[in-house]
């Protein structure tokens, strides 16, 4: 019985040691620098933030009425629309800022 427990313990120790990564591994290469066609807004807000804003726009705005193309209105025309719709859709300021950033990025 003791031999079985000792053998099981030894197997566990060897398995744990074998699972460790060697320290000689090279780290993954850094991401490539942004291409020249990336806009300044993309660098500020990031692609994920813009995608989140688009998703919020699709799920909260376009579910009640047709999906308006952001370029249909100017930035100045969008401001009162977004303020009015924020109240109707009951969106907090953070979600509204994300939607606004998405719309602004499309203009």
Overview of the molecule:
With 107 residues, the protein is mainly α. It has four helices and no strands. Helix 2 packs across helix 4 and helix 3 packs antiparallel against helix 4. The radius of gyration is 26 Å and the shape is elongated. Residues 34-38 have low confidence and may be disordered. Keywords: Heme, Iron, Metal-binding, Signal. This is C-type cytochrome. Residues 26-35 have a biased composition (Pro residues).
Explain briefly what this protein structure is.
This protein is 64% helix and 0% strand. It is mainly alpha-helical and 107 residues long.
Low-confidence stretches: 34-38
Helix content: 55-70%
Approximate strand percentage? under 5%
Compute the number of strand runs. 0
| Mean pLDDT across residues | 74
N-to-C series of helices and strands = HHHH
The number of helical elements comes to 4
Main beta-sheet strand count, sense and barrel state:
none
Shape: elongated
Structural class: mainly alpha
Give Rg in angstroms. Answer: 26 Å
Termini separation: 75 Å
Biased composition (Pro residues): 26-35
Region (Disordered): 20-40
Keywords: Heme, Iron, Metal-binding, Signal
Pfam family, one: Cytochrom_C
Jot down its keywords.
mainly alpha; 107 residues; 4 helices
List the helices and strands and how they pair.
Blueprint (H helix, E strand, L loop, with lengths): L1 H18 L20 H22 L13 H15 L3 H14 L1
InterPro entries: Cyt_c-like_dom (IPR009056), Cyt_c-like_dom_sf (IPR036909)
Keywords: Heme, Iron, Metal-binding, Signal
Protein name: C-type cytochrome
